[in-house]
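agent: user wants the full assembly modeled, not chains individually. Plan: 1) parse entity lines 2) check alphabet per entity 3) run joint structure prediction 4) return tokens. Steps 1-2 passed, two entities, 855 residues total. Proceeding.
--- entities ---
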Amino acid sequence: MALHSPQFGSGRFEQIISQFFLKSLHIILDSRIPSLRPHAHSGELASISRVRKSDKWFSLALGDRPTTLENLNFWHRNVMDPMIIDVILVHERPTYSAVDNLYPDSGSGASSETIIERWVVQYESLKTMVPQLGEGPTSYKKTYKKSIILLRSLYSTMRLLPAYRIFRKLSSSSQTYNFDLIYKVSSFSEPLLRIEEEAMKQYDFVPVEALPGRLCISVTYCPSLFGFSLEPSTLLPPQIITDYVGSPATDPLKVFPSAEKGSCATSFPSRGIQSPLSMSFERPHSWTSGLHRAAPFRQNQPLSGSPPTYRTPPMPCDYPSSPPDIYGHRTQNYRQPTHQKGMSFDEYQLSPPFSPSPSPSPSPSPSPPTYFSGGNPLQTRLRTESAPVSIPLPMTGRSSRYLTPNSSDPYRHSLPPMSPKSTKLDLFSQESPSGSRSFRKTDVSRAAELHCGSTNLHSGQKVVSVIKDSRDDSGRFSGLVSSSGSPRIGFSRSSSRLSFQDDFDDGDFSCPFAVDDVDMSNSRNRYLCFTPICPLFRVLDGKEALETTSQVFPMARKSQDAAVGYLVQMLRTAPPLRQDHGCYSSQSSKTEFEGEVGADSGFFMPRKTEDALEELRSYREMKNLLLSQSGTRVASEEQAKSTAFVG
Amino acid sequence: MNCEVCHLKELEVEHFEIREILRYSNSGDIYFFKHENESVDLVQCGDSELEKKIEEKIEQFIGWVEKHPNKKSQICLSFYEVKSKQATWFVNKTERLYWEQWYINLNVTQPPKAHSSKYQHPKVIVDPGESALEERSVRRTALEVSLREVLFQIIKFVNEKKDHIPSVPNHGGVSFPYEITIPSSSDSSFGMDMFKRMLQTGHPTMLS
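--- prediction returned ---
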């Protein structure tokens, strides 16, 4: 098409035609798609003061063009291709079919899409028309003038058709509806069904001559929309979640409190189906909005030589059926492994693993539940293989309640407030899967050390669990002590380092022994073997100690500050120590110790250098003993892990 | 230049709906207003001065309607070009060449009164409030349909006839020069208005 010839105004025609396409597209989308409108103009023309240069075309200022329009500039290249704009109404379809009955949780109806308007803007080339040479310079002016009138007529017509009422409803921010308007722009579209075409009316605008062709606009529209169930949505309005607990994708090891009904899938309120009271969760999660913003699951029509379909993110009022279906299905899949593995931890209310992306996307991007489900069996296997043992809660009053060595322990939040150091350990344990697994691996090895150390002791003998101190190396602060006189463990601490609650900021987690939580209510079988050199040990029953040692690795997460504080409390209220030649205990030193304990937060015990050196030697012996025993324990643990994974 | 005349379909409106009058001009000044029940949405013109002038004319028209109840009325919207005539000794005349005229026909009705009691069945209790509301709703729906038909009529007319439109004036205004007249505003002044118009311009039908 020779539009660039001088007799036609050196490309002016082409410029007018291309801008005509863009302006008509802008008018149509601006009057039909609420999400594309930057402001709620409510039908008003943009003020002249805000008119941009590009918006001055055809003396019709509409405001800023949506970015999607900028991407549809391929019509600039080939103005001969028609531009077909389908305005599609997404609405609920009543469930009358048997297929819908198979999925009772799909909501009140599946979403359905109906083309309610089809606009066709094209430049028809009239081959029979001979360009008038004498009208070259002024012909494009006439074309431009008539195009102005045509576009203004188009603008007015957009507001007279029935679809504009739907647009007005959607544009109102005060209410949400169970329908939405989307669009599709293409140069080729499938013909309408005969039934649809018969029910629709057509209106053709008078073409504008743009030599050697003409600009044409036509519309096929539904004259009445009463057949569609266009109702306000009954969904909960968007609300701010003040107690956001995170999603499994970001916080996978976090366990949510169990509901009274037990484990059940988080439900998303379908439109008009589920009331807030019937929801298992009292509050919505932040990821629910993403589901409602998911586009309907509809296969895009194949476009030949046309840009991809631009589908706006739907309003949070629609698309009820499929996302909840998928979510519910995934939740089931997600939960099955946990039940099958027979996890020992309490039932907990799972947060939806389906965490769609909030960005406009045709389909939600769910969080990968496989990780979480994979992680749980791992934990389960570890625990089962390592003889999961409950650790009594400190000062919680739950005498029969034992903490499972589970980072997702639902009662971990009820523990005493953690120290900063312990908090760091907790964070470390809730990191990415690799991080948590590495942590567990480390803890297992350390637990193995401790367990090995405990197994070397005489069974039934009272052993002392060691409080884990991340600051201290194993040489300085570790070991198990037996009341029967087996390897002594000396503990030496300087006074400045006895205030555990103060300095937990430095040092790595190097101590292999975890903090043990002791149930104060069940203290009759427990008593401390305190020595001036090992004040932080407590005596447990042999069985508990064996169980405890295997649970050491999760204790790293517990508050060492709290544990130390607890020990301090125990020391202050401890019964008289047992006389043991292995322990540095004497009435005088004990008295001094008690006096010192009551004085300050630390343990200030007068002693000689010789005693300190002796204590150091005993620590070294104990360290070597534990290391040798841990080597065998780690090997056994690793073997157990490998077999569990295989299983 | 031909003067295109368009007589729009008659709209039956109530007194309080007079203000909600739609006016189009094919120059691009589109006047829209919101119907009370927001069933018809229109676009406003961007010229405040134009709107002010229109409001004045509407008030004038309402005044006439109040003096002449239950009468059919008409509003004429004319677009013209200003041509300077040959100056004479006394008058430097300018000529208005009308190239388009729109006649908006209105039939202003009074609100129905309550039914007299003698026509009521003794056993039938009629709530005048509900019936009046229903009747009003029916009338409003019919007006909505009529208004849409009129608007489509305008769009169709505007699209079909474009050749007679002159060039857009460069005086900075947003529209062609226009004139709003109420031919039936005053029986006594009607003739004077017509005489004045004839002095200023020729008869529209004489223009070619």
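agent: reporting back. Residues 4-111+127-188 of chain B form one domain. Chain B has one domain: 4-111+127-188.
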